[in-house]
Write a structure and sequence with these properties.
CATH superfamily of the largest domain: Type I PLP-dependent aspartate aminotransferase-like (Major domain)
CATH architecture of the largest domain: 3-Layer(aba) Sandwich
Distance between the termini: 63 Å
Mean pLDDT: 95
Structural class: alpha/beta
Oligomer: single chain
Radius of gyration: 23 Å
Order of helices and strands: HHEHHEHEHEHEHEHEHEHHHEEHEEEH
Bound molecules: pyridoxal-5'-phosphate
């Protein structure tokens, strides 16, 4: 280290250090990273939380105790099972994945999206998805240095199969992500369109069924019939967002390659044990999903009655449009203790809001507050 004159104060030392770090970052980090922002997670303490598609129902007390019991033998001094076969078999059984398929487990399905894009990053070929879609596809493509191509949905968030396939022909994507149903519109694109896209795609197609518990539709039966089709699932939306467990299913010849990119102990022992326990009590989550679907349809009807443009949904959330008022309604709801999602950075979603379906009481409170703000 060259000797440098000591700055006058500690504050100046820090400033000096910061400017050296900034210079170093300018040489080492890509401009997209330096200019980008981290995935925004708003403060939600004390609010009715209807912004993140979580299951609003707590565990029944008796089940909570049994769950805690199931964790009691966990050996925290040991690394977790690096390849938990029993858990994978149970996930396949629960998720109706054909038994011959392979799985890759992720710390949330977000991590699997990251693994998938990492795997193809060397090609330089773009990642493609409908626009709008789940934000992590474009975010992670950017992090890993791949271009992202968004193929616009129409003004009613429908997929135009012809223009989608044309876009694939033009930009030769390495991976196409199709969230099915789509987040944030809640739409379930026709299965025939998905099939045509899988057939026409020059690379991988990942069908992301994060909302499978609510749509009750799956592409799982197509696995193994197309060389380029993979399926993504998560336990987050049906009630276990805090566990962080997702899985990617597909022909073993694919999952074996992708599994090389997975960090060996990415699924911790508490998650493994908890997931096994809850897969043995999955009826509680299917009952809750039924109730959420019922509440979703009730809320949809009530919002239509208020004259709001709201889209029919096959998920546990509703997208709606409040031209000229969305930001004010969002902050008005917040003042009344209710947090929902306001879209700010997508041109096609300006003045759109997304509300996750809560409990009966939460939905009632949301609706009353919303009505008072219109
Ligand atoms: C929420 C969501 C995910 C991510 O889920 P995690 O498993 O919690 O990381 C993936 N895809 C879509 C479409 C989602 O809406």
């Amino acid at each position: 280290m060259p000797a440098r004159q000591l700055p006058a104060s500690r504050n100046e030392t820090m400033k000096d250090m910061d400017s050296i770090i900034r210079k170093l970052q300018g040489c080492l980090l890509r401009p997209e990273l330096l200019q980008g922002t981290a995935y925004p997670v708003p403060q939600s303490e004390g609010l009715i939380k209807l912004d993140a598609m979580e299951n609003p129902h707590d565990l029944p007390e008796a089940l909570r105790w049994k769950w805690l019991d199931s964790l009691s033998g966990a050996m925290l001094n040991r690394y977790p099972d690096a390849h938990p076969d029993l858990l994978m078999d149970q996930l396949k059984l629960h998720g109706e994945i054909p038994p011959t398929m392979g799985l890759v487990l992720g710390n949330g399905s977000d991590e699997l999206i990251q693994i998938l894009i990492t795997a193809v990053a060397g090609t330089g070929r773009p990642v493609l998805a409908a626009e709008p879609s789940f934000a992590m596809y474009s975010l992670l493509a950017g992090h890993l240095g791949l271009p992202f191509v968004g193929v616009p949905l129409d003004s009613d968030f429908r997929l135009d199969r012809t223009s989608f396939i044309k876009a694939m022909e033009q930009c030769n994507p390495s991976i196409v992500f199709l969230d099915w149903p789509n987040n944030p519109s809640g739409r379930l694109f026709p299965a025939e369109d998905l099939e045509a896209i899988v057939e026409a795609a020059p690379g991988l197609v990942v069908v992301d069924e994060a909302y499978h518990a609510f749509s009750r539709q799956t592409f799982a039966g197509h696995l193994g019939h197309h060389p380029n089709l993979l399926l993504l699932r998560t336990l987050s939306k049906e009630g276990l967002a805090g566990l962080r467990l997702g899985y990617l299913a597909g022909p073993r010849i694919w999952t074996e390659q992708l599994d090389k990119l997975r960090l060996p102990y990415n699924i911790n022992i508490l998650t493994q044990r908890s997931a096994l326990f809850f897969l043995g009590h999955s009826e509680i989550f299917s009952q809750q999903a039924d109730e959420i679907r019922e509440q979703r349809d009730w809320l949809y009807g009530k919002m239509l009655d208020l004259g709001i443009k709201v889209w029919p949904s096959r998920t546990n959330f509703l997208l709606f449009h409040l031209p000229g008022k969305a930001a004010a309604v969002h902050s008005g709801l917040r003042e009344r203790g209710i947090l929902i999602k306001l879209f700010t950075d997508h041109p096609c979603l300006s003045d759109h809001l997304r509300v996750s379906v809560g409990t009966r009481q939460e939905n009632g409170a949301f609706l009353a507050a919303l009505e008072s703000l219109l």
